[in-house]
Amino acid sequence: MARSFEAGQAVRVRDDYPPGHIRTPVFIRGKRGVITRDFGEHDNPEITTYELEGPQKTLYVVRFRQIDVWPDYAGSKGDTLDIDIFEHWLEPA
Amino acid sequence: MTDATSSGGHDHIHRESGPPQADDKVHSYYQILGIALQELLIEKGIVSADEVRQMIERRDAITPARGAKIVARAWTDADFKARFLADGNAGAAELDCPMTYTELVAVENTPEAHNVIVCTLCSCYPRELLGLPPSWYKSREYRARVVRDPRAVLKEFGTEIGDHVEIRVHDSTADIRYLVIPRRPAGTEGMTESELEDLVTRDSMIGVAEAKTPGK
Amino acid sequence: MRGPHDVGGLEAGPVDTTTHDMSFWEKQIDALHALVGDEKRGIVPKGQNRRYVEALGEDVYNTLNYYERWTATMSQQLLEKGILTRDEIDAKVKEIRDRLEATGELELGQGEAEKI
């Protein structure tokens, strides 16, 4: 099921903990951010790491406000954190 | 440079002759294991001593000067900067410093925003433009803390970012590489591109420091 | 569940910001790693390396430094492909240890001698 998101759309990172090689860090799971960039389709390293072929997935940059990621964030309210995340890790928020 | 021949009838890489430097002593089992892998692979003809030496030389030849060249051009040529921001690989290729193996995204420091790069999951780094990454970039301390407390980490590098400036941390989790275009320092009007290149440090292209000011 | 490499946001001490030139040994491992993984040899498929490092486990990942980890995964990959055997590696390690002792280049840290 291909998921497609638009720039500016609010998304949430899946709060899942599946086995295998994963490129979505634990600290960002379940967090809400905004799509800022669409990098287009890419090989999915979570599959290709096993020398398997799989469908390409769209890679997005999602921007998070640091205050939404860390409950005790000590910096400025405007600070952000950008992460490259594949479509299958995102849900509409 | 290195001498691929050896005593004992098998090829292994010797450093330049002379007493071993303190930092080049062998301290751990894994270091010995590394040497063992190399010698075995050379004995079996899977790699050659020459290939290892050439690869070392090739990697040593890549320094942050490549990235600095691109930044200096971006500072002096607004159209180039726009192209570089839109397509990092194309911009780098224009200046004969191509990123051939991975995608490159350039991010720009402005009066409103300061960017800093990390790879929390391993140590992805734009090697083709900056050379080999410094130990701290690969360290647990940097990777764990810069996403969570970038201002404190930047302070450890002697860099203070005002509260009115947004800090944007970029965690390169997929196979994208990032390069920061630091702000052009004040007092550099009229400097040549080559002079400007000297102000662009590796640390400023990672985002833990600003570019050098002239005269420093 | 968190792999040992997934450290973003964890507690950690100050960053050691001093820059050391890479030691020659480190450059060798870096070069060897690139050669072993290149297209000419085809020994290690691209993309395999990171999951091997992640699979080292918490203790090993945190005890070894960056290039020691690459050494560990490379030896694993070479053993798996049958390119090297454990006996060969053990014999070579002992040979090198003896050689380095003779030239004065060996200065094993605490606990390292027992591993050989």
Please count the beta strands of chain B (DSSP E, at least 2 residues each): 4
How many discrete structural domains of chain A?
Answer: 1
Radius of gyration of chain A: 14 Å
The CATH architecture category of chain A equals: Roll
CATH class of chain A: Mainly Beta
Structural class of chain A: mainly beta
Low-confidence stretches of chain B: 1-22
Give the overall shape of chain A: globular
* Sheet with the most strands, sense and barrel status of chain A: 5 strands, antiparallel
Description:
The complex is a heterotrimer of chains A (93), B (216) and C (116). Helix content of chain A is 9%, strand content 37%. Chain A is mainly β and 93 residues long. Chain A has one domain (10-92): SH3 type barrels. In chain A, strands 4-3-2-1-5 form a 5-stranded antiparallel sheet. Residues 1-22 of chain B have low confidence and may be disordered. A two-stranded parallel sheet of chain B has the order 1-4. In chain B, strands 2-3 form a two-stranded parallel sheet. In chain B, 40% of the residues lie in helices and 11% in strands. Chain B is an alpha/beta fold and 216 residues long. Chain C has 5 helices and no strands. Chain C is 51% helix and 0% strand. Chains in contact: A-B, A-C, B-C. At the A-C interface, loops of A face helix 2 of C. Strand 4 of chain A pairs parallel with strand 3 (166-171) of chain B.
